[in-house]
Amino acid sequence: MERFFLELDPPEEAMRSWPQVVVVGGGFAGLKICHVLARQPVRVTLIDKRNFNLFQPLLYQVASGLVSEADVASPLRQMVGHAPNVQILLGEVTDILPDERRLVLNGQHFSYDQLVLATGSGSTYFGREEWRPLAPPMKILEHADEIRRPLLMALEEAEQTSDPNRRAFLQTVVVVGAGPAGCELAGSLIELMHRAVQRDFKQLRQQDCRVVLVDLVERVLPTMAEPLSAAAAAHLEDAGVELRLGLRVDGIAPGRVSLSGSTGEQDLDAATICWTAGVRASRLGRLLSERTGCSVDRGGRLVVEPDFSVSGHPEIRAVGDICCYRHTDGGIPLPGMAGPAVQAGGWVARDILARQRGDTLAPFRWLDLGSMAVIGPWYAVADLRGVHLTGVAGWLVWALAHLAFIPDTENRIALFSKWMWQIATRQRTALLITGRPDQHLGVDVGLFRAERPAAPGVSEAA
Length: 462
Description:
It is built from eleven helices and 25 strands. Strands 5-2-1-9-21-20 form a six-stranded mixed β-sheet, sandwiched between helices. The longest helix is centred in the middle third of the chain and has 20 residues, at about 180-200. β6 and β7 form a beta hairpin. α1 runs parallel beside α9 (about 340-355) and α4 runs antiparallel to α5 (about 165-170). It is an alpha/beta fold and about 450 residues long. It has three domains: about 15-125 and about 280-355, 3-Layer(bba) Sandwich (FAD/NAD(P)-binding domain); about 130-275, FAD/NAD(P)-binding domain, CATH 3.50.50.100; about 370-425, no CATH class.
């Protein structure tokens, strides 16, 4: 098979002999690697199918109109592209050839000395992909738009509807998944609906607004301590969220979610359905497993060595949600959160530099900073390594932690100001109805080449 090689000249001749480090994925881990390697004696190529870094933990705030898209996304070239030894390439990696130390990008082969996969995770519907068009997940910006758009459209239709049953249907939202993302989304959506109905819609009643949180688990936030879970559940119910726990989703049809449990079967009719229940690793994990024979866990995550390399290929590392790292105290895999991803990315970058110098880096040790979830205005729950916080104290810790992890200073300032504005006025600043139905399906990503017309008088055959 004929191969086309993508060979890029270094910006400075002195860099030509430097080792080529290719990082695939511009999320928390990939961005941290680039920051550490910036202005070091290595050539770094960051590849991503989007040209921006997305602060995914705040995606629910885009979905509920608290902040805009630009507040949670920053262009990669502005964040790390200024370093002379870091180049950004837009595109999607479609194949990896480990024996040749090459990958396939935009139909061309690209060489590497060190490869780091940091492509994150996506959503899974546990084998029921036909549900995806009916219940958008919450992983990319288009998902947030596709949650906000139908909800606001439903409220607009309800304002003009005289049928009370139809109006109740339009004012109902179902959120599947009672983890942090589901609880944060449910709490934010019920707040949005209540305030919108109170202030902006003349024909609707607040008591008709319903947000139903559904999951098979027996309590919300099941990975947190039980007292925090109970506090979060109580706050959600006080805010108006209905909890339907211990129930399995058997089917999703347009406007309907079918459930079953110990009490029998039931249907929920809702104009807006959201999905936060399942996570799967990036497809590059299974692809690399096929190419090298390395192991993956049930979620498709690459099982890695203590230095985050894959078995048999020390030049290939995997960090973030794409890896299963069990070399921790107790053998518990690193959780798929921002903190572990940033710490792992920083360690891998320092290890690459240390090996280049002939040094050995101390083994990776994860500092568990805890977990947290915001449930409503001025209310969050936080588990800081056994220290439990709820209410305003939890919200302050949550806000400071998220502001610290946001990689862009401009976004940090914009988010803080919008949070303060929303708390002071209870108004949301990003309630535009834009996009089209099902726009989260078939999202255009990667590089699209511009068409160039043939020169006048020159035939295509020529």
